Amino acid sequence: MSPINDTDLDRLADYAxxxxxxxxxxxxxxxxxxxxxxxxxxxxxxxxxxxxDAALAGLGPVAMPQDVADRLDAAFARETGPADPGTAKVIDxxxxxxxxxxxxxxxxxxxxxxxxxxxxxxxxxGGLQNNAAPSSGQGVAAPRPNLPSQNAxxxxxxxxxxxxxxxxRRSIGGTADxxxxxxxxxxxxxxxxxNPDLSAPEDLGRLNDPVALRGCLAAIVAVxxxxxxxxxxxxxxxxxxLVVILVGTGARRVVVVGPQCGxxxxxxxxxxxx
Amino acid sequence: xxxxxxxxxxxxxxxxxDAALLRAHVAGDRDAFAELVRxxxxxxxxxxLRTLGDREEAADAVQEALISAYxxxxxxxxxxxxxxWLHRIVVxxxxxxxxxxxxxxxxxxADTEPLPVPAVDSDTALDVRAALARLPADQRAALxxxxxxxxxxxxxxxxxxxxxGTVKSRCSRGRARLAALLGYLRNPVxxxxxxxxxATTGEEGRR
Lengths: 274, 207
Hints:
The complex is a heterodimer.
Chain A: H1 6-16, H2 22-34, H3 36-57, H4 66-80, H5 95-103, H6 106-114, E1 120-124, E2 127-130, E3 158-161, E4 166-167, H7 169-172, E5 175-179, H8 200-203, H9 210-224, E6 227-236, E7 239-249, E8 251-257, E9 268-273
Parallel strand pairs in A: 3-6, 4-6
Antiparallel strand pairs in A: 1-2, 1-3, 5-9, 6-7, 7-8, 8-9
Chain B: H1 18-26, H2 32-52, H3 55-72, H4 82-102, H5 128-134, H6 137-148, H7 153-160, H8 164-181, H9 196-200
Helix pairs in contact in B: 1-2, 2-3, 2-4, 2-6, 3-4, 4-7, 6-7, 6-8, 7-8
């Protein structure tokens, strides 16, 4: 009696499915007719087919889990990046003016830009609400710029982003009020690309504290007025910086501040209106 | 509802077909690809999950595959349906992972080790998911597409970029091995000197 090993099982399976060439088919046919082990295995394979069908059918459909779907959407959002492919990782803040006009409001502008970032925190008057997806910080959640607030402060709702983008005067655009970094940028020419090795939240460590952030935004508003609509933990010409967009005073204002924002004033590095 | 992949442009008044969405993505529509994936993600997920047998690995494979598809969409020539193309990329990502996993010496793999055939005792029979995971990866992928997901042999052949005869052979061999692993066969005993990988080499050229 010949044992049916893996190779024989494959031959038998191909035989049963009619896939063997005629010569090989004759060989297996002979084995099935003359060898009890082959005959039995052949019969059992045939008999097992309905059970195999049932077993496989029993696996049933599966839907992609929501967290996996969220991770995917976040990955696509990261791929999408800024609208202008020519400035792949550099966010052109001036572009947001057009979105603002189209949307007739800052919340829509914030929503439009927020999709490109890895984490979104909606800052309401009552405190920070982290909307980031749970998986490895890779999630993108829809911004919620109009969260109901029981204790609304003058700061109002803002979309808080952590892009790490290295902004430049050019990428910010607009009309500069002053140039407070003209002599302080190390290394000469400003870096116009995102530096993935430099993580903005760590560089701006103290401003990760909601209280410190609120103090910083209050200091900015105290100087410029308006309401923060977008806050981005980023860089400015190579240095850690918080980039804040203010609205509500007629023109949109971009204010770039350093890590010490709120300690003794806004620690402003650069500002411009758009 | 229009047949897939025939509409030439995205009409905001009606759902675009897959090819139109892909063209819109290539043309710069920022939402088109995500929408395309939303349509098919459950089936893509099922294929990845059944092929890899591990949720996290499947999640990584699907993401890796679809990001690759996102980036290479401009190279899609329309030789097959968009869904076929997406499935192909996902299946290949899964099989790549299986191959990479096989390079790790500490992880036993169904497709690199001899397939243990269970004894008659039905207590040793595996759950169908576990049994599926023990199949050689190529057989598993074919079985998942045809016998689990219900694709035709022709569709599976296009997705896997192999001949239809090869798909049939992988499915029949996979089913026979499943029968053994599930305890439906009484007679077979393992051939200790015949790795399953060797056993599958003969069907590659089938048409």
